[in-house]
Design brief:
The complex is a heterodimer of chains A (about 210) and B (about 190). Chain A has about 210 residues and is α+β, with helices and mostly antiparallel strands. Chain A has five helices and ten strands; from the N terminus they run E-E-H-E-E-E-E-H-H-E-E-H-H-E-E. Chain B has three domains: about 50 residues, no CATH class; about 60 residues, Herpes Virus-1; about 70 residues, no CATH class. In chain B, about 30% of the residues lie in helices and about 10% in strands. Classes of the chains: A alpha+beta (about 210), B alpha+beta (about 190).
């Protein structure tokens, strides 16, 4: 029987959540449920580089679930730049401005002014945090039988760093492929795929499958 | 799960990305929705799918046959139990040929790391119970820290050895505290 050896994993940058409800809904629910709204953010996901596979770890507070993707099986990584960060910036920026203006307008009513200042500061913190985190993206990993979203790589700077580390590991197993090689490889692959999968030994007999 | 065919697609509109945009090291626009997209393709994308091995049939009487399929020719031996296996029953895991029964045993006993898909984090659970002051949680922390003190921890983070003894101490203190409180309430 194969023995369990001490695994050697290197963590990739980025942390994501397999959300039960969308992020904007959690933000709104925060004002209703308080900190308990964070219970709806779902399982935390992180990626780790193993010796021969990429490990996706889902953590739900009580247990960890693992998914493995062998470097040899990874066909492609697709990164899509999204506008989520820009939308959040616009939303948080507008709210911050409105709340601070309201606070300035209520300078003579101290409790109301402090309420708007605190609310405005909250959205200002979200805005600053989002600006520091940078643009957003969506990453997908493709193998021969699946397309898996890598939810932990939702920020471009993390995704690019992770992609570079991952690309090196995959290239060490599969080899490099330059853009110039791709058309020739594709043509060769299509020829193999469409090639006859049978031979005709005798014209009067049915073809023999290979 | 079926085999995916075709080229990688745009994550937004599911249109195939032209191969000319692969491995460019930067973003290019999707031909349909114009979303900025980057594709890193690897040689496995153009590798033909491997043919599944269904096992050869036994042709000659007395020829070594598979333990599970008596009409199929033995192709290899299980490295754990020594049973003869045909191509269909041969499970090649982490450089070893195993039969389905040994594979199942390995999964249940957690001796094959590659099949270990879920690990309960008893250390976290015990600490959580120990820190939640609900009386029953103190007892739960004591139970978990004693019952699972040797259970393996996280695959990536390992077992935090300090968690179990600390949860045991905190759980015991919590239980004793509640018992003292109940006793004081009873006396008053």
């Amino acid at each position: 029987m194969a023995n369990a050896t001490a695994p050697n994993y290197q963590r990739l940058p980025g942390t994501g959540f397999r959300r039960l409800v969308p992020g904007w809904a959690i933000l709104l629910l925060f004002f209703v449920m308080g900190i308990f709204a964070l219970l709806l953010q779902g399982r935390r996901v992180r990626l780790y580089l193993g010796d021969d596979h990429l490990l996706s770890v889902d953590w739900d507070g009580g247990k960890e679930s693992y998914k493995r993707f062998r470097y040899d099986d990874i066909q492609a990584l697709v990164m899509l730049r999204t506008k989520d960060a820009m939308i959040l910036n616009a939303f948080a920026g507008t709210l911050t401005a409105v709340l601070f203006l309201l606070a300035a307008g209520m300078a003579n009513e101290a409790p109301a002014m402090w309420f708007f200042v605190i609310m405005g500061s909250l959205f200002l913190a979200i805005l600053i945090g989002n600006l520091i985190a940078g643009p957003t993206c969506k990453c997908h990993l493709r193998t021969a039988v699946q397309v898996e979203e890598l939810v932990s790589l939702s920020r471009l700077k993390h995704a690019e760093r992770a992609l570079e580390l991952l690309r090196q590991r995959i290239a060490a197993v599969q080899g490099e492929m330059t853009p110039e090689e791709i058309p020739a490889r594709l043509q060769q692959f299509q020829q193999t795929a469409t090639a006859a999968r049978y031979v005709v030994d005798d014209p009067n007999a049915p073809p023999r499958m290979i | 799960m079926s085999v995916l065919t075709g080229l990688p697609t745009c994550s937004k509109c599911r249109t195939e990305i032209p191969p000319a945009d692969f491995n460019r090291g930067g973003f290019s626009d999707c031909p349909k929705c114009a979303a900025p997209i980057r594709v890193e393709a690897f040689p496995a994308l153009f590798r033909p799918a491997a043919k599944a091995n269904a096992g050869e049939l036994v042709m000659v009487a007395g020829e070594s046959a598979c333990f599970y399929h008596e009409n199929k020719k033995a192709a290899t031996v299980c490295e754990a139990c020594g049973r003869f296996l045909c191509g269909l029953c041969d499970c090649f895991v982490h450089g070893k040929h195993l039969c389905p029964a040994c594979l199942e045993t390995g999964k249940q006993k957690r001796t094959i790391e590659q099949l270990d898909n879920v690990r309960p984090l008893y250390g976290y659970q015990a600490m959580l119970c120990a820190l939640l002051p609900l009386f029953i949680t103190g007892l739960a922390a004591i139970f978990i820290s004693l019952r699972h003190r040797k259970s393996p921890g996280s695959l990536v983070g390992g077992q935090h050895r300090w968690q179990m003894p600390l949860a045991l101490v905190l759980g015991s203190l919590q239980t004793l505290g509640f018992l003292a409180l109940f006793y004081a309430m009873y006396r008053s």
